[in-house]
Specification:
alpha/beta; Rossmann fold; 2 domains; three-stranded antiparallel sheet; 9 strands; globular; binds adenosine-5'-diphosphate; binds magnesium ion
Length: about 280
C-alpha cells in the first residue's frame, strides 16, 4: 500500500526575471510529504510561494530542481492526473454556463458514466449549496458561489487527492465555514487534502498538520497539537463556580496538587461563532 500521497523533495523554482530583472526564487529547497487521509495546510503570507508550490505539484509549472511524486509516480501520467482535483486561486468558470451545465461538462471530462451523472451532479450541487442557483449562468454568481462551484467540479471528479489554493480567500465567515466543512467532509470520506491559506484561523479548524511557508521555504511544520499545546499547562472550564471563592480554590490546588493557577478567565465565544449564530437566527 502506498504510504505517502505526496512526496516533494528539495524542490526549487526560479522565475526568470523579465527584461534583465533579477530571477525570483519562489520555492527554495522545499521538502514535504503528505500521508493518505491527511489534511495538510500550507500557511504563509502573500508572496511566500504557496501558489507556485501548488502549480508545481499539479504539473502546471516545471521545477528548476527537485522531485515531486504523487501516489509514487509523476503527475504527468494521465492515470495520476485523474486522481487529483485542483482548485486554482482564481476559478476558471465558463461565465455563460450555469452551475448545472458546468458540472455536466466536467462530468463528461471525468468520464462519469452517463447514468450516474444526474445524481452525482445533484449531490455535488447540494453539498456546496448551489442547488437553488443551478440554472443561473455563473457570471451572476458572487465570489463565494464561484468558489463553491469550483469545489463542486472537484466533487464531481471524486479524486483521491484534493489540492486547494486559498479556498476561503475573499469569503465571508459563513462562506469560509462552509468550505471548511466541505474539506472535513472530504477527509471523512478518506480523501487527502492539501490546501493553502494566508489566514491562521482558517487552518486551525481543519488541518491535521501544517507547514508555515516563508520566502519559498517551509520554516515550521508539525501536527497542530504539537505546535499549539503548551507543555504542562491545562485549562479547566467550570460551570456554576462562585468566583468569590477563587482564593479558596487556589489554595486547595496549591496544597493538594502543587499546581499554580496562572490565569482565571470568563469563557468566550469566538466572534465567528457569534456572527454565524446571529445570521442563522435572523435567517430562520
Ligand atoms: N509568473 C511569475 N513570474 C515572476 N515571478 C513570479 C511569478 N509568479 C509569482 N512570482 C513571484 O514568486 C513569489 C511567490 O509567489 P506566489 O507563489 O504567488 O506566492 P503566494 O501564493 O504565497 O502569494 C512572489 O515573489 C511572486 O512575486
Ligand atoms: Mg497565492
Amino acid at each position: 500500500m502506498e504510504e505517502h500521497v505526496l512526496d516533494v523533495k528539495n524542490l526549487v523554482k526560479f522565475y526568470k526575471g523579465l527584461g534583465g530583472l533579477k530571477k525570483v526564487l519562489a520555492v527554495d529547497q522545499l521538502s514535504l510529504s503528505v500521508k493518505k487521509g491527511e489534511v495538510y495546510g500550507i500557511l504563509g503570507p502573500n508572496g511566500s510561494g504557496k501558489t507556485t508550490l501548488m502549480k508545481l505539484i499539479m504539473g502546471l509549472l516545471f521545477p528548476s530542481k527537485g522531485q515531486i511524486k504523487i501516489f509514487g509516480s509523476s503527475v504527468k501520467k494521465l492515470s495520476i492526473k485523474k486522481r487529483i482535483g485542483f482548485l486554482p486561486e482564481e476559478a476558471y468558470l465558463y461565465r455563460f454556463l450555469s452551475a448545472e451545465e458546468t458540472l455536466k461538462f466536467f462530468a463528461e471530462l471525468a468520464d462519469v458514466p452517463r447514468r450516474e451523472q444526474k445524481t452525482r451532479i445533484a449531490d455535488a450541487l447540494h453539498v456546496v449549496g448551489l442547488f437553488e442557483a443551478r440554472k443561473r449562468p455563473s457570471r451572476t454568481y458572487s465570489k463565494g458561489m464561484s468558489r463553491r462551484l469550483g469545489l463542486a467540479q472537484i466533487l464531481i471528479k471524486d479524486p483521491d487527492f484534493v489540492v486547494l489554493d486559498e479556498p476561503t480567500v475573499g469569503l465571508d465567515p459563513i462562506g469560509s465555514r462552509e468550505i471548511k466543512e466541505i474539506i472535513l467532509g472530504l477527509k471523512e470520506r478518506g480523501k487527502t487534502v492539501l490546501f493553502s491559506s494566508h489566514l491562521l484561523s482558517e487552518v486551525e479548524m481543519v488541518c491535521d498538520r501544517i507547514g508555515i511557508m516563508h520566502k519559498g521555504k517551509l520554516v515550521l511544520t508539525g501536527h497542530l497539537n504539537e505546535l499549539l499545546l503548551r507543555k504542562n499547562e491545562y485549562s479547566l472550564v467550570l460551570e456554576g463556580f462562585d468566583i468569590g471563592r477563587q482564593s479558596e480554590l487556589e489554595q486547595v490546588l496549591q496544597k493538594s496538587f502543587h499546581a499554580k493557577v496562572i490565569s482565571v478567565n470568563r469563557s468566550r465565544e469566538t466572534m465567528e461563532d457569534v456572527f454565524i449564530k446571529t445570521i442563522k437566527k435572523h435567517a430562520s
